User: Fold this.
Amino acid sequence: MTDATAKPWTMQQIAAAAGVSVTTVSHTLSGKRPVNPETALRIRRLIDEFGYVPDAGARQLKSGRSRMIGLAVPDISHWYFGRIARGVEEMANERDYGLIICSTSNSDPRREKRYFNLLRTRSIDGLVYTASREIAATDELMKIAESSSPIVLADEDVPGLDDVPSVTSTNYGGAQELGRHLRDLGHTRAVIIAGYAGLHSTVQRVRGIRESFPNALVLHGDFELASGYALASDLLANQVGFTALFASNDLMAIGAMRRLQEAGVRVPEDVSIVGFDDVDMASVVSPGLTTVRQDMLGIGRQSAELLIDAVEAGSTEGIQSIGLPVELVIRGSTAPPPS
Amino acid sequence: MTDATAKPWTMQQIAAAAGVSVTTVSHTLSGKRPVNPETALRIRRLIDEFGYVPDAGARQLKSGRSRMIGLAVPDISHWYFGRIARGVEEMANERDYGLIICSTSNSDPRREKRYFNLLRTRSIDGLVYTASREIAATDELMKIAESSSPIVLADEDVPGLDDVPSVTSTNYGGAQELGRHLRDLGHTRAVIIAGYAGLHSTVQRVRGIRESFPNALVLHGDFELASGYALASDLLANQVGFTALFASNDLMAIGAMRRLQEAGVRVPEDVSIVGFDDVDMASVVSPGLTTVRQDMLGIGRQSAELLIDAVEAGSTEGIQSIGLPVELVIRGSTAPPPS
DNA sequence: CGCGATGTGCAAATCGAGTTGCAAGGCGAG
DNA sequence: CTCGCCTTGCAACTCGATTTGCACATCGCG
Assistant:
C-alpha cells in the first residue's frame, strides 16, 4: 500500500496541461465568462481524465459557504431520529449539500458548544435542530438563534424561539383523532402516559386527547419502553380503573402493553392501548398497535428544504413554519370497552 | 430578525483590538512560539469576549486537513446502521473530528460518486465504508482504495479489498454458538434463512451453523422482515420438515416467526427460531428471540478509531483489522424439539 | 563593556480557487 | 480599412490562518 498523501490535482496543473490559463479553466467551470466551445471541451476532457475536483477548503474560504448543513439530534441510533436524519440527508443530497451529524446525547454542554461552533467556524451553512428531549432553549442555542445563523427546528417547537422556523407534526390534530377513535368505541375512563411535561408536543397531545376525555389521568414518562412498563406497573399497583390507555409514543405504549399483558390484562378486550409515531415495532407486536403515523421522513426533508432555502436566500426572513399531517392507523390494540 | 450574514470576527480584528500582529495571536493559540504571558492573557480575553473562532475553510486550505471523516451507510434510518453511526460519531467526537453522513441507499452511482468526491475535494480526511448490502466492490470504490485514501471497512469485508483494514463481528464464531445451542437442545433438522448469497458475513454464518447441521437447507433473503415472512411461507407451502430455523438477522427471524405462528405452528414448542443482531424488537416479540448480540456500537467506534489513526499517521500501513466478539443471548424462542 | 542567548514582534509568503480590469489578437461586417 | 465583437491571457488581489525569515529588543555572564 502506497502512502495516503497522493496529492490531488490543482487547477494550475489542469490549465498547464490544456495550455491555457487558470482564468480560462475557472471560467469554463463557472460559466461566468464565455469560453470557446472547443477550448471548453478540451479542458473538460482533461478534468475528467485527471479526475480533478476543486479543493473544498479553498472554495469555502473564497465563497464563505461550505455547502454543508448540520443536523443536531439527541441520538442518531434511535429509530425516530434516524428517520429524520434520513429525510434530511435525502433533501441535502438533492440540493447538493453535505450533511454533518451532531449528536446531542446526554446534553453534554461541551458537545453542544462544539456543534454550534461548526456554525461559527463556517463549517456548516446552517443547522437543523431537533430539540425533542429538551424543554427549553439553552443559552447557547439562544445566542446562536439571536446571531441569526440559519436554523430550522425539526419535530419540536422550542419556547422562546418563536422567530425560528420549524417543521412539526400536527400533534394536536393527531391526538384529537386518537381521542375520538376511543370515545367513539365507547370508552369513558382513560389514562394518558405522556412525554416530558412542558415539551410542546406533549402539551398538544394531552390537549387533543382531553378534548374527548377531559378527566383523563396524566402520567409522564421519558419516551422509552421501560418507562411505559414502569408506569403501567404503577397503575396496576394503585388499582386505577381505566379501559383506554393513551401513550405519547409507541415505545411507551408497547412497554405498557407488555406489563398489562403480564398481569393478565387482555388487550384490547379489557384495555385498549394506543401509541404515537407508528414505529416498525407497532405492527409486529401482538396485538398490532393502533397509533398515529408521523411522517418523520417528511419532517426531515422539509426541515432541510426550509434551511437550505434560508441559507441560499441569506436570511430566514419570510420562511414559514410547517405542520405536517398525521394519519390514524387502526390495528388490533383498540376495541370497545368491556361491557 | 436581522440578516443572517453577520460576519464572524477574523484574527486580524482580534490582533488589531489587542494592538499586536496576527502572528502573535496565532502563536498564542498554537503555542508554537513563546508569547509574553501578559500579552497572551490580553489576547485570550479578547477572543473570549468577541467569541472568535478560526475559520474552518482557511484552516483546511492551509493544513490540507478538514478534521472531518465520512461514514457511508446504505440507510441511516435502519437500526443496524444507526448503531454503527452512533459509534462512529462518538469516537469522532472524542478525537475531535466531525462526521459527514453519506447515504448509499438504492446504490445510485451518482450518489456514490458524490461521496467519494468528498475524499477527493478533501472535504473529509477519511471514510468509514459500510458495504453490508453489497457483494463486490464497485469500480469507484476500487479506484479510491487504490489511490490509498484512508478507508476502513465496517461490518463487512469486501472481496478484492484485502489491503483495506476492516472491523467486523466474529460471524463464524457466533454462528457456531447458535448451531451448538440448537444441536445441544436435540434438534437435527434445520433450515437456514441466510442473507445475500456471496456476502462475506453470510458465508461465514452459514458455515458456522453447518458445522452442527451439515445438511441444513439454505434459503436466501434480503434482511428485511417481509423476506423472512415470505420465505417461511415457501417452507410451509412445500411442507418442508424442520424443527430449527436459523435466520441471518433478527428481522427475518421475526418475519418468519410471525408467518409460522399465523399458520398455527407453535414457537418454540414445534419450531425453535434464532436470529442474529439482537435488535430492540428481539426482546419485545413473544416469545423473545434467541439471538447473537453484535456490538454494532463497538464496530462503529473501532472503525472510526482505526480510520483516525490512519489519517493521523498518514497511511493505513500497519493498521490491523479487528474481529469483535459476539454474545449468545438465549430467550424464549428456542427449546428442545417436539418428541 | 560586550558577547551570545533568549524572547518577541513584524512583514511577507503560502495554501487553491474565484474574480476583475486591461489589453491583445482574430474575425467578420460595413 | 476600420469598427466592434468575441475569445483569451496576464497579472494582481481576495478569502483567513499559518509559518517563515528577519530584526529588534533585553538579559545574564565573563
Observations:
- DSSP finds twelve helices and twelve strands in chain A.
- Chain A touches chain B through 65 residues (CB under 8 Å).
- The domain at 66-169+296-326 of chain A is CATH 3.40.50.2300 (Rossmann fold).
- The first helix of chain A runs from residue 11 to 18.
